[in-house]
Amino acid sequence: MADRRRSAELLVQLDESAGSVALIGLAQDRRLSYADRRWAIGALALVKADHVSKDARLELSTPPYNRQALQTIAKLNEHGTDMLLLRLAEDVGLDGVDRRWAAEALLESRHPRARSLLSRIANDKTLLSFDRELALDSIARLNRTGADTTPGQAVPVDASKNAPLARSLV
User: Do residues 129 and 165 both lie within one domain?
Assistant: First the structure.
């Protein structure tokens, strides 16, 4: 991975668009470790962040990987970024937090598949109950408001709408 990572860093410096495509490819590569894939996601968000100076964007040694990185990617509306988030949310090889953050970023960008992805995460018994509950909370917020809201805020679950999901969490 070190060679691929360094190649992506150099490509970003030479051609930001081509470097972004390379980072998307690394982030989707299931043969790579979580750490390497998270590095690629954080680097892509850093490269594309409006509020970061060009010099800082070119320093990709330790880009931040967090929910905000995925939200930045969701706001890009560039070729390949929606597909990246969709693949991350569907990737059963990733842990629950990564999948949930990707689905919630899609929810915030009003992607039509966000609800079904969150539902799949909420029903995936291989994930930690915490991530399943937070996915269910995002669905409950969407059901209640009809619009996206800030993920991660606890919201009481409407048992009448989400009883099958809520029962599956216990």
Answer: yes
Can you spell out the DSSP letters for 104-134? HHHHHTT-TTHHHHHHHHHH-TTS-HHHHHH
- Print pLDDT tens along the chain (170 aa): 678 888 988 898 889 889 999 999 999 999 999 889 999 999 999 888 765 555 655 566 677 888 999 999 998 877 788 999 999 999 998 899 999 999 999 998 889 999 999 999 999 999 999 999 999 999 998 888 765 444 444 333 433 444 445 445 44
Q: Based on the domain organization, do 125 and 41 belong to the same domain?
A: no
Considering 64, 95, 110, which residue would you say is the last residue of a domain?
64
Whether 3 and 19 map to the same domain: the answer is yes
pTM higher than 0.85: no
